[in-house]
Predict the structure.
Amino acid sequence: MVTFGSGEVLFDGSANKFELRYKGVIRITDSPDNLFIEADRRTIKGIMLNDSDLPNELFNYVGEFRLLSFKSSKDDITKREPVTLQGVDYWELDNEKWEDDGSLWGTRNGTYLVGSKQRFDKHSLVVNNNIKTQYDGQFLYSDNIPVPANELIHIHADNVVMTGGVHTEDSVQIYPYKDKTPTRKISQTRQATTTHTSSSGGGGGY
């Protein structure tokens, strides 16, 4: 079962991957370091880098968010999970069923806003923090100098890879070896970044 609302998405089950569909505009502010998250306007996917089970708290967010469907996966078995809502009073919900509601977002009385409204920003929708480079030259600086092994990096939702475990004003963009364009998907990034630190706060914007 998955629960959303109050700025968090919680999972109660046994799986190491998930995929959800949602409606709204959010920014993911925090997630576990060993959970790599990929997100766009309508879907969010996550995979555990160390193949362990998903944590109870998948991520925190701000913005407007309705979770429409959730699938978990483990050992090539995919399961559709029931979805429950927390933190929203029943009488504040739309009178129509979500799947039958054809109104524009924000024109009805549903209160799914946590914090401030967000503008869609692919770059900062989610940031996977505190990932370590696996070997010398796995990534290159813009001048083709190799990034050393065991350097902390972070990866944005638009696949931009930058130095530093979390973003700071000193962070610079780096590029996969023989690529120089940050276009890796989850499966590719997982193969290249299998080492993580034990600190918290894996996902988030800046």
Q: What stands out?
A: DSSP finds one helix and 15 strands in the chain.
